[in-house]
User: Which sequence fits this backbone?
């Protein structure tokens, strides 16, 4: 990535490149080897187009209409009609970062030289990304099989100069106007191109990559929240010792426990009850078992990353061009099951991490379990409610996340006159995972906020350097320490922004180095 551009070649794009294009606005250009591969595959399609033998997607209809041979003079209309009819999405607009990620991933497949598009079509898709032109894609329309058809069709429509887009400033306008303003000309799609532009798992895959990126940060932040809770609830750090974790050698568990151990190092609070006078035998599960839950979620994320890596290396289209054999072959690689399963799996893991975070928070508020802290951490209990309702907010989000953890990929509704009789619902799995990731960040933020208040209430005992840095971050961001009740929602939203931006993670790491 130089000059804020990502070069797309015949090989897979990386997670970092997806994030750079989707979130950071990086432009895109095609490498010379990608353009050569595109030209080679196009030559095969043109040979087949000239042949009297029907070839699916080149000289036939689509789906259940594949038995009709299409005359050469109707093939441009065939591709145009395909895109127009499939751009049938409905509902709210999909986020810009999702649309940009799916455009990049479709371009990456085009660049493999297995789809048969012309180079000018691929280059126009790259140009839309470079100019910040984002087609309007709607929430509903993909069944996650035969690709994310409707979302991708809305993007293909923009290449034709039709439909609506948003320009780099976010202004809604006709695609034709946006292309003209950028000095770009729409393409007239030729044989196979409409199909090649819409037949991929790019939407669900883009959302998977973004979710993995977010979850890797959030799980380390959840370790920070757990450490603050263990510390402020006078828990022990001894259960996180490496020799105990080695007895159950899950890599995610080892990483989470190592983080907790490092975060609690040199804590005056922990040291204050480490001696022989401490009569606490065991901490509650939500404290003691944090590495086991956070670690299982970590291992799930890394499994999902393995699947995503394979999918990034795939050429998903149907039919697919095999240039060496000069032929076109139908296949089922567009089925979203591999991606859909891990999207659902991640929603389960996120819900469980949120659930244990909420349980840790709740312990702070109960005077029977918080070891000497005031009820609800209130300044004047009875007059003040402290963080009572912050936990309600957490509980509401956790409950929603449990509903979002119900798998989408176990459902299937047949379509296309029973030709497409089993579908993945992977797009739906991805959409609900995005809401779940957002929910997890909110739950963790409330725990951080509550634990910071509790640590202040433990004064004059000093927290560990890492947790103290997080408390200082909150205070510097305008979240006051303990005191009479005040409007709590803005403080929660500030904490959420600090979690989502990575500021909480950065604050802790500034004291002890990178967490695992």
Assistant:
């Amino acid at each position: 990535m130089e000059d804020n551009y990502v070069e797309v070649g015949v090989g897979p794009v990386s997670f970092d490149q997806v994030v750079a294009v989707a979130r950071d606005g990086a432009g895109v250009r095609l490498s010379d080897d990608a353009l050569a591969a595109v030209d080679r595959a196009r030559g095969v399609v043109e040979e087949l187009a000239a042949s009297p033998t029907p070839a699916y997607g080149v000289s036939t209809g689509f789906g259940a209409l594949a038995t009709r041979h299409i005359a050469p003079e109707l093939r441009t209309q065939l591709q145009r009609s395909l895109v127009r009819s499939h751009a049938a999405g409905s509902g709210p607009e999909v986020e810009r970062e999702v649309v940009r990620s799916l455009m990049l991933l479709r371009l990456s497949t085009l660049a493999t030289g297995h789809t048969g598009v012309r180079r000018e079509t691929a280059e126009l898709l790259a140009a839309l990304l470079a100019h910040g032109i984002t087609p309007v894609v709607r929430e509903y329309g993909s069944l996650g099989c035969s690709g994310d058809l409707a979302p991708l069709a809305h993007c293909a429509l923009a290449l034709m100069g039709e439909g609506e887009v948003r320009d780099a400033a976010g202004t809604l306008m006709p695609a034709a106007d946006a292309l003209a303003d950028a000095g770009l000309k729409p393409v007239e799609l030729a044989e196979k191109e409409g199909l090649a532009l819409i037949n991929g798992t790019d939407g669900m895959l883009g959302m998977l990559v973004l979710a993995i990126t977010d979850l890797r940060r959030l799980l380390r932040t959840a370790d920070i929240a757990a450490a603050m809770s263990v510390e402020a609830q006078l828990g022990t750090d001894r259960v996180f010792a490496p020799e105990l974790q080695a007895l159950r050698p899950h890599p995610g568990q080892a990483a989470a426990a190592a983080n907790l151990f490092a975060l609690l190092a040199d804590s005056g609070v922990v040291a204050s009850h480490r001696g022989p006078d401490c009569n606490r035998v065991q901490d509650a599960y939500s404290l003691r078992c944090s590495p086991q839950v956070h670690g299982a979620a970590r291992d799930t994320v890394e499994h999902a990353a393995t699947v995503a890596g394979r999918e990034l290396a795939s050429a998903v289209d149907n039919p697919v061009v095999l240039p060496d054999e000069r032929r076109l072959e139908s296949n089922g690689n567009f089925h979203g099951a591999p991606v859909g399963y891990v999207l659902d799996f991640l929603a389960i893991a996120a819900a469980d991490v949120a659930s244990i975070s909420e349980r840790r928070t709740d312990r702070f508020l109960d005077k029977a379990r918080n070891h000497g802290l005031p009820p609800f951490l209130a300044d004047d209990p009875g007059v003040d409610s402290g963080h009572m309702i912050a936990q309600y907010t957490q509980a509401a989000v956790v409950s929603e996340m449990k509903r979002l953890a119900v798998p989408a990929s176990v459902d299937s509704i047949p379509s296309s006159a029973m030709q497409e009789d089993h579908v993945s619902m992977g797009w739906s799995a991805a959409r609900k995972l995005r809401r779940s990731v957002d929910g997890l960040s909110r739950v963790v933020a409330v725990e951080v906020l509550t634990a910071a208040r509790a640590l202040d209430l433990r004064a004059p005992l000093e927290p560990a350097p890492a947790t103290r840095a997080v408390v200082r971050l909150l205070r510097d961001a305008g979240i006051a320490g303990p005191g009479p009740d005040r409007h709590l929602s803005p403080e929660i939203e500030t904490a959420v922004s600090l979690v989502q931006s990575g500021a909480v993670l950065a604050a802790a790491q500034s004291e002890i180095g990178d967490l695992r």
The chain has two domains: 5-200, 208-315+345-512.
